[in-house]
Fold these 2 entries.
Entry 1:
Amino acid sequence: MPTIAGSEKSEEVSLLSEDTISTPKKLKSRQRIAVSNLRTPDKEVKQDSHENLAVDSLSDCLGSESRDEDQMRAVKEALHVSKAPSTIVCREDEHRRVFEFVKGCLDQQKAGSLYICGCPGTGKSLSIEKVVKQVGDWSKQACLPPVDTLSVNCTSLTKTADIFSKILEIVEPVKEDNCYSSPLHRLQSLFSQKQDSSSRMMYIFLSFCCVSVTSDDLTSVIIFKFFSRLIIADEMDFLITKDRGVLHDLFMLTIFPFSTCILIGVANAIDLADRFLPKLKSLNCKPMVITFPAYSKDQILRILQERLMVLPYVAFQSNALELCARKVAAASGDMRKALSVCRSAIEILEIDIRGSPGPESQGPTPDNPVVRMDHMAAALSKTFKSPVVDTIQTLPQHQQIIICSAAKAFRGSKKDATIGELNKLYLEICKSRVISPAGITEFTNMCTVLNDQGILKFGQARGNKLKRVSLRVDESDITFALQGNHLLTLGVHFLSSHCGRERLTKAGTNIIQRLNLYQLYANLIKLLWLVN
Ligand SMILES: Nc1ncnc2c1ncn2[C@@H]1O[C@H](COP(=O)(O)OP(=O)(O)OP(=O)(O)O)[C@@H](O)[C@H]1O
Ligand SMILES: [Mg+2]
């Protein structure tokens, strides 16, 4: 529950949100949306995300204590990687191409191979799972025999060649012939023989007679062995051996004259195709390749919004979700990471609610348990803590201000500026925070130090003031590095000039609460300034 109670605190917090996050007009519509969320969650949540409003949570309307825990649990569940989303958004094209490939093979009763690659967390396994289900539904509708599917995560194999025994298990569930030297040889031998077409005819006949036929029924009379098999080899990178023999043999299974193997290999290595496939090409078994690109900021945001839409209340401020999407897209485009950051932000909010400020706690407990920008920034910082962030955090205050000026200067398409231009921005920030600025010589020296540390980069120029400077670190790293305790001083200076210390002193009797409030102000102002 909220750590800070009382009208003065509420006044401070609402003042803060009105001044810095949204206008009073927006606040009015916020409340309307929060209430209507209860009735028409999907539509309204969508509306909120489009309008980018800070929205109150369900707890305003319910007023129960245990609801917080239940809500938090539900949000974490909705964001858990193991929770399969009902629809996969932002992968429509890839999904369609994979499905068309399998469908094409089944239609023509031919074997084939597909190689899917993409960075971690780009929805490869998830999409394949959906395709398998879709293929099952489609073959049923088309009165085709069910497609036997083998999904192997290659990391689970004790040795790489075990992939062949797994395939043999579905191709020949009842062993007929024990006189083969290895599962691979047996598969090669099976796929070299003519198919028993009676099996397909038998299936169609039984289906026609409305007899429910399962693959188990048919395999028990050993007439099923030549039906199509869909083989999914996920994490296929693990099959790479020194001589790459297993990988080659696997793909070559699809070119035997009577093979009905539809092989889909999934791996992270984008260049696997280039490294191993020339040989496969020469063997005439080069697979079709589909690449899953990293998710963009908009895609991550949309996926998060879709996943949260199942909840009848709003758990995140939309700008907090956007911050997460932007940072994750810039770092890797890994959806798994985005989900984990959001869950971590929920945990930080939980700490706030419980009123036990841990290291992550960034400010006073909100009345509405909604993940705010500061929660999200703390969660991101936890996830993306890097040497760059550490370096920025340990810099002297003036150098940090220079970095802030640079981040501001190079936002958008601008790639570099002169030292003079950067100095102008630096002076503006110092002025706004009532900090006496360093002179131009000292300023240039500090820029040189930052250049030596790899944070700024100098271009060539004759005069110092004309020297061009660019930023070598990610703007989001700066945002994360500069939120937190050490910014307190900057925040206090800023607040002193705008609100007056006396007013803040009156705000509460507990010194910790006051510090938290300062910190919240400082973080929010900093974030809004850098983000907007
Ligand atoms: N389009 C999406 N919609 C909803 N959730 C998604 C989407 N893409 C990814 N996810 C979530 O991210 C998680 C990771 O996705 P997935 O396992 O498909 O990644 P991957 O590309 O197979 O990664 P890896 O290469 O590490 O195996 C999924 O479990 C799912 O929860
Ligand atoms: Mg995967």
Entry 2:
Amino acid sequence: MEFPSRCGALAGLGLFWLQLAAPLGAALAPRSVDAGGVEVVPAAPVAWRAALPTPAAADHPPDGVHLALRSSSPAKDAVVDGWPDVLSLEFTEDVDPALSRVVLVVAGTEYGLASRAERPGAEVLVYEIPEGLPAGSVEVRWSTTGDDGHPVSGSFAFTVRAVQAAGAPAETAAPVGPPAGVGGRLEVGGRAEADGRTDAAGPQEERDPLQSPSQVALRAVFYASLIGLLGGALFFTRVVPSAGWRDGEEQLRNESAARTWRALRIAALLAVLATGLRLLAQQAVLRELLGEITLADVLDTTWGRGWLWQTAGITAAGVVVWLVRASASSARAVALITFLGVALVVPLTGHAAGEGSVVGVLNDAVHVAAAAAWIGGLAFLLAFARPVAGAPDDDPRRALRRLLPSFSRVALVVAPLTVLTGVVNYLLHGAGLAALLVDPYGRVVTGKTALVAVVLALGAWHNRRIEPGVAGGEDPARLVPSGSLELGVALVVVIVTSVLVATPPME
Ligand code: HEM
């Protein structure tokens, strides 16, 4: 590609990131928790710990190893005499108060609570309850974020019975209006909502917005683009150079390399765009649940740092691939570094990173690299079956004839490696073989494995039937129908994977 068009592409990339940086920049603004009248209670002295009610055991049974509310005080559905001083929530894993929000809905009015800095454990959040709230039915709406960046929210209800102080007239459970200093408005991180929302009536189920169809689709696009980037990088480094070109085919080899590099650039651009879109979507989910959050709060978490590395790694790879020419002596090294580097940053936001398992992260990196070399490589191979404008009719077919056995040799290594590391992934995150048909995570893995079996069967058909035929002089375009089917089923595997990574594995 000529210099001016490369500059244009890079300028477009720069504009895209500026666009992305704007909301992140806004997120850097300090969080205001007291605007609009929400009382900010200073951290209580250590002495309050003794007075802190212990959360009741397992009144909110967790359904997996993903973050869930384990218990609360007051407990779910409890009836308490008078308002307690604090509300405490115990989760199944450590939680960060800066990335958690709790709102009480009392008599149709929402009150955003301020958390106490001191808490009995890293998995417990403690919130001051303002004075003067009316008795009656209370809905607690909570949102927080797990170690793997998974935002989770839910709600539960309890009832406060009016207590009658000695000599005082009986307090009624009727709404008494917003307490002094609270103002009856919800302010979470500066975002105000109107009083008395009417949807506050019934308790909701815990929900995980990352499992919504749009989030699943976005993750699938993200994975597909990464598979293209990694697959193309390995195709350029390994498959094209060792394709057994004959004497006199130097030009065809160079053209094949240039063609692969052009497609690699498009894959790199798509991967950078998909990474940015995914980041924006994640940010929207976090904002919806938590209100404004600061970048510092996010970067204080394992997943926040994972996002940073992932975004930086994929963007750097995209920029370098666009800057370097296919004919440059450094092109193969760039492609190899892209392959290894991007494979290493992908698992930094997944279950393995959330669990803090180095073995899990490395195994996942090998899994992603192997799966991408296999499926992404197949996509690049099939692209050679398309006639190229201006090229003699024979050229793409001749290239395909050379590239097919070279790709096959790579696929024979990476396909079993994908299955092996996929099984290890499941053994590390899943609940064992018995859960494969029982729990939701196991069932998704079972479905994924069944689809992968179809992809493997089609691959074996190509290896045993098509490849020997092509070596014997048959038209290599015979690969296209069943190769496209193999690629199509593999794309369904990618969609299933994007459901899998948002499904809580059982303990
Ligand atoms: C065509 C074949 C396959 C492709 C394209 C593929 C792709 C992927 C991708 C992109 C990830 C996400 C990695 C991340 O975000 O960290 C993943 C994770 C995973 N894969 Fe595969 N995979 C394939 C085959 C398999 C097989 C055969 C198994 C099981 C036997 C498997 C089990 C898993 C598991 C358990 C995870 C971890 C999900 C989590 O974080 O909870 N995969 N795979």
